[in-house]
Amino acid sequence: MSSASRPRRLRRFLLFLVSLIAVLLAAVSGCVGWVYVDAAVSTAGRTEFRNELAVPPLAESRVEPDGTRLFELDMRTGSKEFRPGKVTPTWGFNGDYLGPTLRARRGEQVEVRVRNGLPEASTVHWHGMHLPAAMDGGPHQMVEAGATWTPEWTVDQPAATLWYHPHPHGETEDHVRRGLAGMFLLDDELSETIALPRNYGVDDLPVIVQDVTFRGAAMDGAHSMFRDVGFLGEQTMVNGTLTPYREVGDELIRLRLLNASTARVYTFGFDDARDFALVGTDGGLLDRPATLRQLPLSPGERAEIVVRMRPGERTVLRSNKLAAGLDFWTQRFSGGDDTFDILQLRAATTLRPSPGLPTALAPASTPDGAGSVTERRFELDLSGINGTPMAMDRIDFAVTRGATETWIVHNRDGMPHNFHIHDVQFRVLAVGESAPPPHLSGPKDTVFLAPDDTVRLAVRFDGPADPDTPYMYHCHLLWHEDLGMMGQFVVVEPGGAAGRPAHGHGH
Ligand code: C2O
Ligand code: CU
Ligand code: CU
Question: Plastocyanin-like domain: which residues (predicted)?
Answer without folding.
Answer: 85-189, 378-492
